[in-house]
Design a protein that fits this description.
Number of strands: 10
Strand order of the largest sheet: 3-2-4-1-5
Number of domains: 3
CATH class of the largest domain: Alpha Beta
Number of helices: 11
Order of helices and strands: EHEHEHEHEHEHEHEEHEHHH
Largest sheet: 5 strands, parallel
Length: 286
């Protein structure tokens, strides 16, 4: 008898339209959908006219339920697994289930889609060519501070998930332990009240202090740079303005020259120059 296939299906992180045509087709065609929360998944399925039978697979029953689901797969039933939102296994259940299926030589097919960490990176304005995702920060402050100490020298852009009620205290620890970094905090991504705040930890703390923060939170922080100079954004902008007046070089060539001259990463120079040009354009049009 031919074994069934296990599909790992990414679902929307908020907006129900953020689902691929392939995901809808797979969810309609499989014999069963295993879901982290069947009530939440039922809302998604109803929105897209999907009536495939549902069963639960979550943190508390993953070990035991995986055995039952794998027996169904071995009998030839195709099964799709979905988490509450986003891609299963990324700070969600699914890892144990997938590993048990692999151990039984079950075919695994991922159906990719939304990931909050990547969406937040898109909106952060921070380098995306190399980044590291750490999942949820430790909930206890002592362990969180120890963890932040361990990643203080990480040169890549860092991405964390955080609970809304711990956001300000987490940002305070980031400010104290990681030092002056560029930070972006995204909240309620793809939902009605989506917002992304960018700036230093101090600036973002002030924006949230005293407010009741709601929604799922993603924090993006710039990586450490041992060669980073102490040149301020204002100095970079002023130097660009002066150089552009006295040079026929392109903006790109000026950025490259300033990066080398001021010992500042090219992407940092580019970010500040772009902000300067946008402000200049706004001033001229107003």
């Amino acid at each position: 008898m031919k074994q069934g296939t296990l599909y790992i299906v990414a679902t929307p992180i908020g907006n129900l339209e953020d689902i691929t045509l392939r995901a809808i087709r797979v969810l309609k065609e499989v014999g069963m959908i295993a879901a982290e929360d069947t009530r939440r998944t039922r809302v998604l399925l109803d929105a897209h006219g999907i009536d495939t039978p549902l069963t639960s697979l979550h943190d508390h029953n993953e070990l035991k339920k995986s055995e039952y689901l794998i027996s169904r797969l071995r009998e030839g039933t195709d099964i799709a697994y979905v988490s509450d939102a986003g891609t299963p296994g990324i700070s969600d259940p699914g890892y144990l289930f997938v590993n048990h299926a692999i151990a039984q030589s079950i075919k695994i097919i991922p159906v990719p889609g939304p990931v909050a960490a990547v969406a937040a990176l898109n909106a952060s304005g921070l380098p995306m060519d190399s980044f590291v995702f750490f999942g949820f920060l430790p909930s206890r402050r002592t362990k969180r501070r120890q963890f932040l100490e361990s990643v203080r020298e990480e040169p890549k852009t860092m991405v964390f998930y955080e609970s809304p009620n711990r956001l300000v205290s987490a940002l305070e620890d980031i400010r104290e332990i990681l030092g002056e970094r560029q930070i972006a905090v995204s909240r309620e991504l793809t939902k009605l009240y989506e917002e992304t705040l960018r700036g230093t930890a101090d600036e973002i703390i002030e924006s949230f202090r005293g407010k009741r923060v709601k929604g799922e939170i993603t924090i993006v922080a710039s990586g450490a740079d041992a060669d980073r100079s102490t040149v301020s954004p204002e100095e970079i902008r002023a130097r660009f303005h002066e150089t552009r007046k006295d040079s026929a070089s392109s903006t790109r060539d000026i950025i490259n020259a300033l990066s080398e001259e001021m010992n500042v990463p090219r992407k940092e120079v580019y970010r500040h120059v772009l902000a300067f040009i946008e402000e200049e354009s706004h001033d001229e049009s107003s």
